[in-house]
Automatic annotation (TrEMBL):
Gene3D superfamilies: Bacterial extracellular solute-binding protein, family 7. The keyword Signal applies. InterPro entries: DctP_fam (IPR018389), TRAP_DctP_sf (IPR038404). This is TRAP-type C4-dicarboxylate transport system, substrate-binding protein. GO terms for biological process: transmembrane transport.
Amino acid sequence: MHKKILTALALAAGAMAAQAQQPVVLKVAHFWPPTALSQQKVLEPWCAKIAKESNNELQCQIYPAMQLGGTPAQLIQQAIDGVADIVWTLPGYTAGRFPSMEVMELPFLTKDAEGGSRAAWAIYEKYGQKDFAGVKPLAFHVHDRGQIHNNKRPITKVSDLKGLKMRAPTRLTNMMVAALGATPVAMPMPQTPDAVSKGVVDGYVLPWEVIPTMKLHEMTKYHSEINPPQPGLYTTLFTIAMNQAKYDSLPPHLKKVIDANSGADFSASIGRAWDESAPPARKQAIEHGNQFNTIGAAEVEGFQKATASVADRWVKEVTAKGYDGKGMLEMARTLSAK
């Protein structure tokens, strides 16, 4: 009898050990194609790193291009609901839902994506945590300098935008486009190439990184740039966020792996990847024979004056919702300037 008990205990222990060694497979969803920088230069290396550091107890199954269904605007809710374990999306796709982090999308705030992304994480830690109940953000980042692209004419001054229908990604970028005299057309990134090719929009504001991925350089005549040392015209905020319940279900040693690969440094590294991607992406538009022009410092001042009202309006709106709008703006400007 004693021998039978020992055998049963040994079998049970063996079964528990085998179960413990079963990997946790994280469903990771995003809206880009699998060839995009986001997957190849960020998600795939990140997944490989957490697999290595967890002895393959953590693994990823990546679902690009909305393969789990839904629309890009629904990704954050998919993370909250557990349809996906991790998503990469724009908080701004759900207008007004995440007021604290909108500050990073105000015009002429950031100089580069790496610094802007580190600033974004700091804003989240101080002001943004209540907005993201139901998910555990792993990173916040911004993209490389947003520029103006269109098929009508070179943009050299604010008045050149008058009457143009311009695609923009989020609530604040649409406010910026309107302040510059154009007609904003809100749509997620995946819809933009079709809208450009059919003339639904005359142009769009986008960073360089994504343009070749969507083959937009093959559909666009004019690229108008605001270059350093001037701050960028705009940027857009992204988040990589994990379902909170999924994170909570992990044993401590696997939580430690996720924590070690999240936060300010991870955010900044994503921004750096975007900064590094801009020159080779831009080169493809040059090789296609498109026309480029730089918006000079004197003209940039006109753009800044035209869009100053966007920040003022944003501060009033979020303050009315109980946020420290002025404090968030001052913190974002201070950090971005560094």
